[in-house]
Amino acid sequence: MLADLHTHTNTSHGHHSAAEMYEGAAAAGLDLFGLSEHSPLPEEYACKLYVAAFPGNFRQFVQDVQALRQRELEREDRPLPLLGVELDWLPDYPRHMCRFLSCWPFSYVIGSLHYVGLFPVARPNTWTDGREAAYARYREYYEEMARMAASGLVNVASHPDFIKRASYDLFHAWLREEGSLDVVAGAVQAMADNGVIMEVSSAGLRQPFAEPYPCPAIMRLAADFGVDVCLASDAHDKADVGAGLADVARYARSFGFRFDTLPLRPDDIATRPAVLAQALDYLDGPLPRLRFSL
């Protein structure tokens, strides 16, 4: 069973439409394909990468995915489309997040931290304020990740060390500092306590540092705390849909993980009985999950 539930379209800053990304999923041989566009941001958090029309285009994105799902629903030889979202965790805007999520029929919600305060953690050439400020930012990042995991709003914590993207060496230096892994462990413990799945993303393999998200130290913590994991590509291009999933599957298995755990209910994939039959177990509740062999 092959699934990729974290992908993006040209609604925000991807390169292709939902239909084109879907064809990428078909070419990759996926069984389940989730389109999980970014949530629109408040004005204070404007992302320079997003197309100008993004907030207003979100409705069209939802309609496009729903049309895809309707078209492909009964075609068992094709990937099953699913509507998800990548929610930006913005602790100063709880009403914004809750109101947004209440507006759309998402099958699952991926939670992400792209900002610490107003600081865009992945923007190049922004980590110029010194080691002390950077270390404080890493700490705040994981403290917020713990709060996100405990919020009840998200099913998945995505790319859990995305903050390393523009500060890789500095981030790993911080991880080696006394007490840093304890801070990260607080976030991982919150995932375990609240049934939030941790994403293992191949997107890091496409960066110059060629390391999955998250790094080995965080994978070991997740294994120790018994956190479930799911695999994803975070593709923004149709050529990257499903890319690297075999690599991150091997990576996850090397830490003892045995399941690819998807934030879905059986009803979400009922028209794919052959896929559903491969599910090893199902946990119901506010944060549902289906486990498949990794």
From TrEMBL:
Pfam name, any one = PHP
Q: What GO biological process terms are annotated to this protein in UniProt?
A: L-histidine biosynthetic process
| Listed GO MF terms | histidinol-phosphatase activity
Cellular component aspect of the GO annotation = cytoplasm
**Pathway note:** Amino-acid biosynthesis; L-histidine biosynthesis; L-histidine from 5-phospho-alpha-D-ribose 1-diphosphate: step 8/9
At the top of the EC hierarchy, this enzyme's class is hydrolase
The UniProt record lists the EC number as 3.1.3.15
Reaction catalysis annotation: L-histidinol phosphate + H2O = L-histidinol + phosphate
UniProt keywords (A-Z) are:
Amino-acid biosynthesis, Histidine biosynthesis, Hydrolase
Task: Name the domain of life.
Answer: Bacteria
Q: What region holds the PHP domain?
A: 4-202
Family membership, please give it.
Answer: Belongs to the PHP hydrolase family. HisK subfamily.
Name of the protein = Histidinol-phosphatase
Please name the source species: Desulfovibrio piger
